[in-house]
Amino acid sequence: MDTILRIKMSAGGKPEVTKEAIGSFAGLGGRGLTTAIIAKEVDPLCHPLGEENKLVIAPGLLSGSAGAMSGRLSIGCKSPLTGGIKESNSGGQAAQVLARLGYAAIVLEGKPAEGEIYKIYINKNEVKVEPAPEYKMLPNYDLIDKVKEKYGDKIACISIGPAGEMKMGSASIACTDMEIRPARHAGRGGVGAVMGAKGVKLIVLDETGLENRKPVDEEKFRAANKEFVDGLRKHAVTGSALPSYGTNVLSNIINEAGGFPTNNFKTGTFAGTSKISGETYAELMTKRGGQPTHGCHRGCVIRCSGIYHDKDGKYLTKQPEYETVWSHGANCGIDDPDVIAMLDFLDDNYGVDTIEMGATIAVAMDAGLAKFGDGKAAIELVHEVGKGTPLGRILGNGAGITGKVFGVERIPVVKNQAMPAYDPRAIQGIGVTYATSTQGADHTAGYSITANILKVGGFVDPLKPEGQVELSRNLQIATAAIDSTGMCLFIAFAILDQPETFQAMLDMLNSFHGLNLTADDVADIGKKVLTMERDFNKKAGFTAIDDRLPAYFYKEKLAPHDALFTVTDEELDSVFNW
Amino acid sequence: MIPEADILKMVVSENAFSEFLRSLQNGFYVKSPEGISVKDFLTEICGITDEYIEENVKTVFINNKPADKLHQVFIVPDMICALSGAMPGLVGAMMRMGSFYSVLREGITCESPESGKSGDEVLVKIKLFNKILYDKGPEFLFKGIYADKADLISLLESGVFESEISEMEINKKKLKKVILNNLSIEFQSQFIYYSIEFTGNS
User: Fold this and answer.
1) What percentage of chain B's residues is helix, strand, coil (to nearest 5)?
2) Tens digits of residue pLDDT in A210-233
3) Chain A: residue whose CA lies nearest to B24
4) Lowest mean pLDDT among A234-248, A448-462, B61-75, B117-131
5) Measuring CA to CA, which residue among B188, B170, B171 is closest to residue B179?
6) What is the pTM of this model?
7) Are the C-beta atoms of A442 and A417 separated by less than 8 Å?
């Protein structure tokens, strides 16, 4: 995995394929690699949909190996939604196959003539880039059905739906799962629009004849992997809560904490939560012959996903995740699990970010386009996006644009990216990360809970007044580091509580690559990544003003705690002081 | 002071049992002396062992506020107590009892109120989530719990129990035929104390 594959989608000619050694990017994977390439090669002032932008697709450092949880695929570019640097990652099989094919990254460059659309086919012997007019405007599920007919079932696919082709700010990039369904998405920041701008509809990765990547020290790697897996299995979150109920196990808890944004962030509790909770979904899935426990890629031992069947017992979509259940559920006042599952399917099929789309529909409901709680209307609005009607084009460009067009004041975005499923007034610490993240409002930016294991910047005393800022800073560093390994962030639960599991992860990296990384080294990677991202954003025109929450979070009290966001501007501005 | 309650006993199918169990996410009531600690309430009144709490109850909310020390929070009237296992994500970690990350939610953390210790009996609303729901919910349903009349009637009349309840006894009178509509006229009190049995429950 020491090769970077560059494909120049040049206008007026055939796309050019070149391969080069990884060179100065050696030792980087996942977010570390996407950020390093974008920071070095993309003009921060370029138009995100122009030929100067690049789309970097990178597996993690352990992807393609027998290592557990190593299947995240990072996708980076200048974001058409935020205007800043973006890394969005996804599960599914693509990272594993891309790594086994030997590529550290695919970099899509340039831009074809308007209207041209291509497919890229990669196997162990060749890379083919061919026009693909037959796939134009196909939704993801229809597309992948056709692709399977042509290429068989030894493939993993990376694709965009109509939203990506229409270059919408909420467009996602789909990755197929173990069943070759386009159900896993790099959702955030409009990465799908950049792929659409490059004229690439589909990348087929053929795994025929491929083997697992081999570690430098096979015996040590095997032992470390076993220790790592044992740690994940014995932990209450990764061994029980997530496999049993999926990420949606959080709905009841966040609702109980009064931080479950409801009806476009008007209150912190939703009366219908028990109807759409992880517990309820798990029972429903079992009853209908679906699966409440399912992995999104081979090598996953947490298996937080599931398979959702409709009322007739037929596959409809993957188990809707917590963010989807919140965004399309509580945030739109909808408490019907089938409606939310249908919206999840439509998001995946048209290729839009489930957080952005749910937040957008809630803003549209505030604007009077539909009533809160009207599931049928919500479904119709997502169809508008898929069809690309004038209304759909507005909605497809996210909550910020929709709010502006319809004159809504309550628009829950930071850097124009919609907030995820935790109200920052009730949970102030997450608000610090929303405000200051390089990615726009993003719960996963400070998601990794390994800060004190990594001892980033020394051990933090959380009881100090400045604890929230320090913790947010360190969490963002730790997350950037974990994202750079390509490991699923959910490992963080186990490595928070079990230092031996964190050590096992380090041992996996070291034995695989023949390195001697320490916790400090991993933390340094995180800092470097964030520094590059902050620098890019600054050059792109971001200032301290962009590191703020919308004004209403400071002045509209949130029930039931009557809470306001109270972290000061000075404190927010100190997050990246290191 | 605890209001009067009607008494309802039911024999139900496994499907119906699942419905009742799932409804415990919304809350039910248990009688308790005012002023005892939440820890004592859970162990002595609810019958949940110390070992079970230690091992499994990782997240507790008192009146929507995450709590850290159950022995320092005392039962007061109108209290709501929600019990959950360990939760994922940064926010899940923040909410855990005694979490290192509790500072990130300090604005809503449950402060320990003064103990009233009146000794009067009050109803405490309990909500059970995830692992705790499935581990401990059945015991509550078999033993008997208080439910708000409107909530329970709404559940019973929701249409999901047709042919799923085989026997019904209201205030010690066994009904000749199970009724699932116009139930409000059968119950006079604000609360209903109900318990259920189902095939296999001895």
Assistant:
1) 35, 25, 40
2) 999 999 999 999 999 999 999 999
3) A274
4) A448-462
5) B170
6) 0.93
7) yes
The CA radius of gyration of chain A, in Å to the nearest whole number, is: 22
Q: Answer yes or no: do A279 and B130 touch at CB < 8 A.
A: yes
d(CA A545, CA A525): 27
Give the sheet arrangement for strand A315-318, strand by strand: A291-294, A305-309, A315-318
Nearest-Cα residue of chain A relative to residue B55: A236
> Across the interface, which of A256, A560, A563 has its CB nearest the CB of B127?
A256
Q: What is the share, in percent, of chain A residues with pLDDT greater than 70?
A: 96
Dist CA A429 CA A470 (whole Å): 10
Nearest to B90 among A446, A463, A563 (CB): A446
Asked if B178 reaches chain A (Cβ–Cβ under 8 Å), the answer is no
A196 pLDDT higher than 90: yes
For chain B, 202 residues long, the average pLDDT of each consecutive 10-residue run is: 88 94 97 95 97 95 94 93 89 84 81 71 96 97 97 94 92 91 91 88 44
B58 touches chain A (CB under 8 A): yes
Give the number of beta-carbon pairs within 8 Å between A and B: 148
CB contact under 8 A, A493 and B93: yes
Task: Tell me how far CA of residue A148 lies from CA of A38, A192, B152, in angstroms.
Answer: 32, 21, 51
* Contact assessment for residue A238 and residue A232, using Cβ atoms and an 8 Å cutoff: yes
Query: What CA–CA distance (Å, rounded) separates A356 from A187?
Result: 9
Chain A environment of B100 (Cβ under 8 Å): 452, 462
**Is residue A455 scored above 80 in pLDDT?**
no
Q: Which of B103, B109, B134, B158 to mutate to test the interface with A (most CBs of A within 10 A)?
A: B103
The verdict on a CB contact (< 8 Å) between B91 and A254 is yes
Q: Say whether A475 and B90 touch across the interface (CB within 8 A).
A: yes
Q: Is the backbone peptide bond immediately before A560 cis, with ω within 30 degrees of 0? A: yes
- The answer, for B159 touching chain A at a CB cutoff of 8 Å, is no
Average confidence score pLDDT of chain A:
92
Give me the pLDDT at residue A467, please: 65
Minimal Cα distance from B110: which residue of A?
A257
Partner-chain contact B107 A247, CB within 8 Å: no
